[in-house]
Amino acid sequence: MSGQKFQYDESGGTFFYFLLSFLALLLVPGTYYLWPRRPKQDPELLSRECQCDGCKKKKIILQSSEPWKETKALLTKSLIILGWVILLLLAYKVSQFDYEMANFDPFEILGVPSGSSQSEIKKAYRKLSLILHPDKETGNEKAFMKLTKAYQALTDDEARKNWEKYGNPDGPGAMSFGIALPSWIVEKENSVWVLGLYALVFMVALPTVVGMWWYRSIRYSGDQVLLDTTQLYYFFFHKTPSMTLKRVIMILAASYEFYKGRNNEIVERPGDNEEVPALIKQISNLGAKNKERPLCYLYSLKARALLHAHLSRMPLNPETLEKDRQYIVKKCPYLIQEMVTCVNQLILLAYARRIQRLPSIETIENCMKLCPMIVQGFWEFRNPLLQLPHITDDNLKYFLAKKRQIKSLQQFAQLKGEERRQILRALTDSQYEDIMKVLGSMPYIEFKVRSEVIDDENPTVYTAGAIVTVTVSLTRKDMKHLFGDNTVKEQTIIDDSKSGAAGEGNEEPVEEENQTLKKPAWVRQRKGPKKSNKKGSNKKAPSQKAVPVQAQATVTSAQQNNTPNARRKDEAKAEKDPNKEGVSDASDTELDSERSDDEESSHDKKDSAVDDDDTEWERFQQKISKREKILEGRSKLSHEVHCPLFPEAKQEYWWVYICDRKSHTLLTAPVHVTSLATFEEVQLRFTAPRWPGLYTFTVCLRSDSYIGFDQAQDIKLDVKEAPEIPTEHPQWDISDEETAEDVDAGDEHSEFTTDEDISDNE
């Protein structure tokens, strides 16, 4: 394009504009997000903090874990302030730039009013030229050239026309595109340095940063767990499908997060060769003679010994092993969640026939039980009242007196204030106050369960093979709402101490090397009617294949209600019987009543249709809100846990799942609830059994932070037989061969164990 030219910024003015804009874009959001702010100290929260020795030590640990926090905050403030100072200096410098042709006004330059005569203009020019001429002491070459152009614009006819038309006495200028970089960048003598800087940034620094990020990302899963650790979990849980709690601790201690070769944060000290063997001698039933790899490696033995010492609350050297214990315990909740995920994946693979070993539900529950044990720092068989501050084994005898028998925290909270103080009479008032603070902040969960078949006309009727949706509603309250309230219904608490999976058992875990996929109790041969071998019996058994939901609801409602067609048949039979007098009259009255009933039912149907529309709209709104929550992401904030022996601030999390206690089988994947602040709703789905009968399943709620807060509720499903596919729909027709094969396959195995089968076996 003619008339255009590209030039670098010789004066540097454009470059300063670029720096000013770029620096402002960095400083404005950076100041808002990066400026160190001290958290506001809520007086109410400070008054509710526990002042026990364990909490005081934990505060010191949290402060010492960030030794450079104050230094980083001071450095950040200094950098932000320095940036704003530079920004102000650049703004001042840019404001001083006076471009030659910017807002060119000859009258203003000469200092005469517009419309002045030629003599006045010449007089003003002579006066200013004597001052601004370069040969004078007060001269200014740039200002003198500008004065000359202004004089020409007012005295020369052609220059005046150019100024009036183009705003410039010299006429239209060429279009120029400036590059906001100083010209010295492209100078020949500086080209080597510029190219070297480009090569250093784009060929060395940038690939190095991207490579380091990629190398780190491919080693970790989404939950920041090493992929090698995940593979280790898969191997051992597949090798030992039924795993005791002691075995789970061994697998957890073998995680590669505790191995120096995979984690640079691990510290190996020369003193470990003396302190670790001494600690192992103090712990019984550690399983130190196990020869499996990597369970027999030194890092695994050290981590296992530290976990046992943590659960037994053994004192350790504060400069060496105590620091290692804090680091290992801090990593455990994330690793245990990964273990739960791995066991669940193995169960799904076993159902899909991809592996030959089916992990038991006890294995996944032992993983869940281990998490609150590590957070609170004691074994599962200990009394849950030890989670309260200042409570020791000596104080437990007052809880277990013959008159009281207080075994749970909920029972203790429901006592009257005088009774609680009488039990803790050996403690001081400040210690009793700490206990009440912690007890009042502990969770009380209202656990409600509702099961239905969504998108069905009759959601409370369960047919074989239907998708059952169990909605679990969790309402979280503080335990202080129970103080002195004996009317609260006792919750069904899961007692794992009776399961026989003790944490410090003497028995070694049984290795099931040759175990094949054993079907659950509800996947076994059904006790059905014997097949007839007589000739000529061509009756076909009904198919067990699933049918459309509308057909299911129609057939089920027809079975439950007496239809008008059936009533008309009964009336016709009664009219044909001459021995029964008054039957016709009775039938007439029945017909009249039927008409009135039909009219009432039509109105009821209209009302029910309106109600159904409202319920459908509510469900639609709930689905939209749930999708929005999913898009926003999961929150990780609920309520802080009182855990003095856990070296970090811990939030309350929960697991929700459905299982079959009779067959020891997991039906749904455990959902990790991480945002239960006040209310949370979780939906669990599973397929109903293929055979009709009455089934009992258990919905479980487990805490990953507290011991003794696990709950369970049973749901009973009266599964009806799935109706046959209507023959008037050719698109649903199934060949006789396929139907016979399906019936034979269905007769071979039933899907669930009914309560009747269990009673028969007993």
Give the SSE layout.
Layout: E1 4-9, H1 13-34, H2 43-48, H3 53-64, H4 69-95, H5 106-110, H6 118-132, H7 141-155, H8 157-166, E2 175-182, H9 191-217, H10 227-239, H11 245-253, H12 272-282, H13 298-311, H14 321-351, H15 361-376, H16 393-399, H17 409-413, H18 417-423, H19 429-441, E3 443-452, E4 462-463, E5 467-478, H20 549-560, H21 564-576, H22 583-632, E6 654-660, E7 665-666, E8 671-673, E9 679-687, E10 693-703, E11 711-720, H23 736-748, H24 755-761
Helix pairs in contact: 1-4, 6-7, 7-8, 10-14, 11-13, 13-14, 14-15
- What overall geometry do the principal axes of the alpha carbons give? elongated
Task: Report Rg.
Answer: 41 Å
Label the CATH architecture of the domain at 230-444 and 478-499: Orthogonal Bundle
**Which class of the domain at 230-444 and 478-499 in CATH terms?**
Mainly Alpha
CATH T-level topology of the domain at 230-444 and 478-499: Sec63 N-terminal domain-like fold
Q: Low-confidence spans: pLDDT under 50, at least 5 residues?
A: 1-5, 500-591, 738-751
Computed structural class: alpha+beta
Q: What's the story with the biggest beta sheet?
A: 6 strands, mixed
- How much beta, percentage-wise? 5-15%
Percentage of residues assigned to helices: 40-55%
Total helical segments: 24
CATH superfamily of the domain at 230-444 and 478-499: Sec63 N-terminal domain-like domain
Q: How far apart lie the N and C ends?
A: 98 Å
* Number of E strands: 11
Mean pLDDT: 76
Transmembrane segments: 15-35, 74-92, 192-215
Region (Disordered): 494-616, 722-762
Domain J: 105-167
Membrane topology: Multi-pass membrane protein
